[in-house]
Amino acid sequence: MAWLLLGAVLCMLRVGLGTEGSLPAAPHNCPYRCVCAADLLSCAGLGLQDVPGALPAAAADLDLSHNALQRLRPGWLAPLSRLHTLRLDHNALDALGRGVFTNASSLRLLDLSSNALRVLGRHDLDGLGALETLFLFNNRLAHLDEHAFHGLRALGRLYLGCNELAAFSFDHLHGLGAPHLRTLDLSSNRLGHISVAGLAALPAFLKNGLYLHNNPLPCDCRLHHLLQRWHQRGLSAVRDFAREYTCLAFKVPASRVRFFQHSRIFENCSAAPAPGLEPPEELLHAQMGRSLRLHCNTSTPAVRVAWVSPQHELLVAPGSRDGSIAVLPDGSLAIGKVQQQHAGVFVCLAAGPHLHHNQTLEYNVSVHFPRPEPEAFNTGFTTLLGCAVGLVLVLLYLFAPPCRTCCRCCRRTCRCCCPWPRAPSPLQQLSAQSSVLSTTPPDGPSRKASVHKHVVFLEPGRRGLNGRVQLAVAEDLELYNPVGLHLKASSESASSTGSEGLMMN
Fold first, then answer.
1. Are 448 and 471 in contact (CB under 8 A)?
2. Which residues contact residue 308 at a Cβ distance below 8 angstroms, ignoring those fewer than 6 apart?
3. What is the dihedral of CA 338, 339, 341, 347, to 10 degrees?
4. 352: which DSSP letter?
5. Using 50, 70 and 90 to split pLDDT, how confident is the model at 87?
6. Which residue among 2, 16, 185, 392 is buried most deeply as judged by most CB within 10 Å?
7. Contact 367, 288 (CB under 8 A)
8. Which of the 8 DSSP states describes residue 268?
9. Sheet of 40-42, strand order
10. Chain-centroid distance, C-alpha 222
11. The Cα angle at residue 33 between residues 28 and 39, in degrees rounded to 5
């Protein structure tokens, strides 16, 4: 009995010691010094020279940046079936190799920037059929295989800036699928030979995301006309970096000039080739609520036809996600009821045995509200108003005629209602004929005037006075002293005076 009690006590002590002294279990299969959190795995900045051997299968976001990785083993991503983001930037990778991304069929983002890659082979990116974003900037890439991106059919953004590329094929984009590609960064490279025809044939949505600044472009007239047109159309890739677009004037690195600022180099360029570089887009005007149909007519029959909406949505049969746009079996695009969201550029992409990806058609659709029909002008009110005004005027004429005796009837109330003036008095008639008023005689020997005498010299009147001189005498004139009186008369009055004599009382 005592042995049973002793065994029970020992078991209790063992269990108690084990519970207090044990540590929390580490996450299942998490590499040493890495951080594992749910579906995230971060091994950044650990100085790793090789990829950890055991990786958790639940990882969907793997960060191996800022290490010293030089090589990647083929098939190393086989356990990570859920992986959609892989960051390998800021390492020492100088080559990739075939089979490196074979098991990355779900990968959406791959960051290989800031490494030492020099060449991108044909099979280096095999297995990335679902990849949407690829960062390859800040490497040493000098050569791209003609089909380096052949398997990246879903790629939408490709960043190749800050490398050593001297050429890039815009005819087939090194195998890229144009319907999804929206951003192509080729800035800060060594591009000196560019196919202007290949640039002009790119779809409109890709031209808006094509970055070519800070390259030694040739000072070619056709290239200048093309970039000028893109700048005038407001393409952000050219407009936002206009100062950084340069070209070589004399094929010498020191002869770089700015494309949009040094116009003297392009003075001899004729503007004639400019319209022929790009196929003109067709302008269409659609009314709100009406139906619209667009046809993708190409020079040769197309096997596959796809459309790109103004919202950069790839449209294939049966149509758009919201159901407002339908792609018909013959390749045409139909909109049942046009809305404001349908305004913009629709691009048709046709593919076939004799067609490349650059066989595109563009339709610039503008949507406007229907104008209201003008109302018919109603003349009934104006006719009625004219009749009323005419009737009032007739009544005024009949019952309120002008009265010639108005001065007699309204003299008390209105002094100026009579239009006929009264007969002037003799003094007023005499004063009306005066033209010269002076306080001193103009021809006298002295201009000293008398204090109490004022004489007004008058010219003889022509009507009713028979040439005689008339005098207007002021109030303080002394009539009993006519000695100092001087007369002024014209030649006509002087002769009359001389003939008849001076009459004085």
1. no
2. 179, 203, 205, 314, 315, 346, 347, 349
3. 10
4. B
5. very high
6. 185
7. yes
8. T
9. 35-37, 40-42, 61-63, 85-87, 109-111, 133-135, 157-159, 183-185, 210-211
10. 26
11. 45
186 neighbors 211 (Cβ within 8 angstroms): yes
Q: Are 118 and 142 in contact (CB under 8 A)?
A: yes
Q: Is the pLDDT of residue 484 over 50?
A: no
| pLDDT attached to residue 79 | 87
Please state whether 267 falls in left (phi above 0), alpha (psi between -120 and 50) or beta.
alpha
Burial code of 116-150, b = ≥16 C-beta within 10 A, e = fewer? ebeebbbbbbbbbeebbbbbbbbbebbebbeebbb
Strand order across the beta sheet in which 344-351 lies? 282-287, 360-368, 344-351, 304-308, 314-315
By three-state DSSP, how is residue 66 classified?
coil
Spacing of C-alpha 300 from chain mean position: 37
In 3D space, the residue among 191, 155, 202, 161 whose CA is nearest the CA of residue 175 turns out to be 155
| Length in residues, the chain | 505
> Residues 266-281: pLDDT tens digits?
777 765 445 556 666 6
What is the 8-class DSSP label of residue 144? E
Which of 84-93, 286-295, 308-317, 395-404 has the highest average model confidence (pLDDT)?
A: 84-93
H-state helical runs in 289-365: none
Q: Which of 201, 203, 182 is nearest to 363 (CA)?
A: 203
> What rounded mean pLDDT belongs to the chain?
74
- Give dist(CA 332, CA 302) in Å, integer: 12
- C-alpha–C-alpha distance, residues 62 and 26, integer Å: 19
Specify the amino acid at residue 495. Answer: S
Q: Which amino acid is at 357?
A: H
Angle at 341 between CA 182 and CA 359, to 5 degrees: 40
- Give Cα separations from 388 to 212, 226, 352, 393, 398 (angstroms): 77, 70, 79, 9, 16
Strand partners, 360: 349
Spatial CA neighbour of 233 closest among 195, 169, 186, 281 = 281
Between CA 212 and CA 99 the distance in angstroms is 32
Amino acid at 33: R
